[in-house]
Amino acid sequence: MSVNELKLSKTISYALRHHPEEFNLQLDEEGWCFIDDLLNALQTVNQLQDVTLSDLKKMIAHSEKKRFELKKDKIRAYYGHSFDVKVKYNEKKPPDFLYHGTARRFLDSIKRQGLIAKQRQYVHLSSDRHTAYLVGKRHDDYPIILKINAKEAFDDGIVFYDANDTTWLCEALPKQYIDNL
Ligand code: HQG
């Protein structure tokens, strides 16, 4: 039977980014754990009991975003962690504009504080409006797309990292760089 790749991706994201202890997983300081341990842990998860290494590799290959990294017998989430993890990202000059999709209910607070990482390690920004819309849609049926003046922020010394084709990270984004607030 074919594997439910969405469920697999979401379950592993949850385990490797947020709650490894719920799966009895030990992550090292760079966020890696043994693939065998992860596959064992999945045996207790409905619909994922029989997932193999080959299923895991297929899911990663089919994914539209680079969320996971494999190295020899280990795996880690590449970004999105809510705990402290040492992942080395490339510092990079961003495009002139980036986007951030968010919920209407967060706007007042963003107007006061700018964008903050909240429970994650970084603020996540998107390279295009459509991706930002999809990110925002996770929080609100009618998300707001903020336009970020990334060039100006970069020129003022804010450090940006590119996590994958569509995802950029920064520690925090002060409100003056949000174009349409
Ligand atoms: C909001 C997914 C109040 C922020 C996506 C967001 C992304 C504030 C929410 C990745 C705020 C945090 C991350 C402030 C920011 N006051 N609210 N000052 N500053 N917020 O889920 O960016 O597909 O932690 O706007 O694609 O939504 O799973 O972050 O709405 O790349 O790989 O606080 O997760 O990645 O929500 O999404 P999240 P996010 P995957």
UniProtKB/TrEMBL annotation:
One of its GO terms (biological process) is tRNA splicing, via endonucleolytic cleavage and ligation. Its EC number is 2.7.1.-. The keyword NAD applies. InterPro entries: Ptrans_KptA/Tpt1, RNA_2'-PTrans_C, RNA_2'-PTrans_KptA, RNA_2'-PTrans_N. One of its GO terms (molecular function) is NAD+ poly-ADP-ribosyltransferase activity. The keyword NAD applies. Keywords: NAD, Transferase. It comes from the Bacteria. It is an enzyme of class 2 (transferase). Belongs to the KptA/TPT1 family. Removes the 2'-phosphate from RNA via an intermediate in which the phosphate is ADP-ribosylated by NAD followed by a presumed transesterification to release the RNA and generate ADP-ribose 1''-2''-cyclic phosphate (APPR>P). May function as an ADP-ribosylase. This is Probable RNA 2'-phosphotransferase. The gene is kptA.
